[in-house]
């Protein structure tokens, strides 16, 4: 089943009243195409394999689907969502919690690596109905017999193509072997390579296929033919022309992502690289800085950029043309979300031009070329970040709350609430974005006065 439009009201669905109330409270009214096509069969209990770009509403689709199958009074794990990374698992868990906000006595637990096992074991003593996790940590719990998946009703693989790219198929097979054959299996992916079809073959039973793979019409795409050696100069001129509040630059390799980010930093831009070679903590901090406004340009590989929780990007740039048309559509889908206007720019060297043959049919209105020589933008007009992120060595395990940090900054530190941006509370540390000109003063006052009578270590993230 393929669609690029035709949304319907959520009220038309056979959803429990509590779920409809949550949907209304969040502000959802009309379903997105992937929701309209996948939710009715999911509510009927069918297996579904769905392809749709980032920002298309996939999480709400399978979230509502699995919540509809949960029996709250039954203290067994009834739904399992597999995610490739810890940050995506956290985002999915938060989205499902919002959808379940009006459903009393429902427990959801996130099981991912990079965190102490002890608190997870304590949480598992009170069995959750829903588990969201990463393959490695779920395998750990299954080996220790601390997790029972024998009552699973719904299994979801989110960003399935990325999990296969990361080599998780053996882990997925092992986890699935602990679930009953009668389960409903939902497979969501941004792209449909042959490997996804193969996995669906042994994982699902007569699945309905939903494909929503067109780039959003609110995005204007422009292509620039440019020699490889001139790409860095053109990139800087484009940044100078558009002056975006934030921009995602895609590269095909980790080495190129590092090289482009380094070149931009040397030119005075606030830029960071994101790719699979980063340690988890470094990756977390790059994402937090970009989402919090203390980095303007994120240079990323396609795999690393999957699942980013970035609600609005005015501009994306492909430093290199992707050899995969589905990946091209996924890149474009990072901008122009939720009805907003977006721009996607693509830098194409002569040797990359052959890749456009498969991409052109996926570009609404066809490929629009613009002469690189006519781009008016000051290459030296560097993008500076408006915020600076501070790291506090206290987190959820220390009972740290967002209100504690905000209170300390607007109290002893003397900032106004408008000077304080995004606050993220992790297990053992917290991050807060502060208006750049006030960051040093905030740092000094936090170190001097502390938070709620305690003086945790506070440092700026460089």
TrEMBL record:
One Pfam match: DEAD
GO molecular-function terms, A-Z: hydrolase activity; RNA helicase activity
Helicase ATP-binding domain: residues covered: 39-210
Record motif Q motif, residues: 8-36
The UniProt record lists the keyword Hydrolase: yes
Helicase C-terminal domain ranges (all copies): 234-387
Keyword match Hydrolase: yes
Domain of life (superkingdom): Bacteria
Enzyme Commission number(s) from the entry: 3.6.4.13
Keywords, ordered alphabetically: ATP-binding, Helicase, Hydrolase, Nucleotide-binding
InterPro entries linked to this entry: DbpA/CsdA_RNA-bd_dom, DEAD/DEAH_box_helicase_dom, DEAD/DEAH_RhlB, DEAD_box_RNA_helicase, Helicase_ATP-bd, Helicase_C-like, Nucleotide-bd_a/b_plait_sf, P-loop_NTPase
Gene3D superfamilies: 3.30.70.330, P-loop containing nucleotide triphosphate hydrolases (3.40.50.300)
Domain DEAD-box RNA helicase Q: 8-36
UniProt family annotation: Belongs to the DEAD box helicase family.
NCBIfam families cross-referenced by the UniProt entry: PRK11776.1 (NF008744)
PANTHER family, sorted: ATP-DEPENDENT RNA HELICASE DBPA (PTHR47959:SF1), ATP-DEPENDENT RNA HELICASE RHLE-RELATED (PTHR47959)
Protein name: ATP-dependent RNA helicase DbpA
């Amino acid at each position: 089943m393929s669609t690029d439009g035709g949304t319907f009201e959520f009220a038309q669905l056979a959803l429990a009243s509590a779920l409809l109330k949550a949907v209304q409270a969040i502000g959802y009214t009309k379903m997105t195409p992937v929701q309209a096509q996948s939710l009715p069969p999911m509510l009927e209990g069918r297996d579904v394999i769905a392809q749709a770009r980032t920002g298309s509403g996939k999480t709400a689709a399978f979230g509502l689907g699995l919540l509809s199958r949960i029996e709250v009074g039954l203290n067994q794990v009834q739904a399992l969502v597999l995610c490739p990374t810890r940050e995506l698992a956290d985002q999915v868990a938060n989205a499902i919690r919002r959808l379940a906000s009006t459903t009393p006595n429902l427990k959801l637990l996130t099981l991912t690596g990079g965190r102490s096992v002890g608190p997870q074991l304590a949480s598992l003593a009170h069995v959750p109905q829903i588990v969201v996790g990463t393959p490695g940590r779920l395998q750990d719990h299954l080996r220790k017999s601390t997790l029972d998946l024998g009552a699973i009703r719904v299994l979801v693989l989110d960003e399935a193509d990325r999990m296969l790219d990361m080599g998780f198929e053996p882990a997925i097979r092992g986890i699935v072997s602990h679930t009953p054959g009668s389960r409903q299996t939902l497979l969501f992916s941004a792209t449909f390579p042959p490997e996804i079809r193969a996995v669906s073959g042994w994982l699902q039973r007569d699945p309905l296929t939903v494909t929503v793979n067109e780039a959003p019409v609110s995005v204007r795409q422009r292509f620039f033919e440019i020699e490889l050696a001139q790409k860095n100069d053109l990139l800087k001129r484009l940044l100078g022309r558009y002056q975006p509040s934030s921009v995602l630059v895609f590269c095909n390799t980790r080495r190129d992502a590092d090289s482009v980010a380094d070149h931009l930093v040397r030119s005075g831009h606030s830029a960071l690289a994101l790719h699979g070679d980063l340690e988890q903590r470094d990756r977390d901090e790059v994402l937090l800085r970009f989402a919090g406004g203390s980095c303007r340009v994120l240079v990323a590989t396609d795999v690393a950029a999957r699942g980013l929780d970035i609600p609005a990007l005015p501009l994306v740039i492909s430093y290199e043309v992707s050899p995969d048309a589905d990946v091209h559509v996924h890149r474009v889908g990072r901008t122009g979300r939720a009805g907003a206007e977006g721009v996607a720019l693509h830098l194409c060297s002569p040797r990359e031009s052959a890749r456009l043959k498969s991409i052109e049919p996926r570009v609404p209105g066809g490929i629009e070329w613009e002469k690189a020589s006519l781009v008016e933008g000051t290459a030296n007009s560097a993008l500076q970040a408006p915020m600076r992120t501070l790291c506090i060595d206290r987190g959820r395990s220390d009972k740290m709350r967002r209100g504690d940090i905000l209170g300390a900054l607007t109290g002893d530190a003397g900032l106004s609430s408008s000077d304080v941006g995004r606050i993220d509370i992790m297990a053992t540390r917290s991050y807060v974005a502060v208006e750049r000109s006030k960051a040093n003063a905030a740092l000094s006052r936090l170190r001097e006065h502390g938070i709620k009578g305690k003086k945790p270590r506070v440092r700026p993230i460089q």
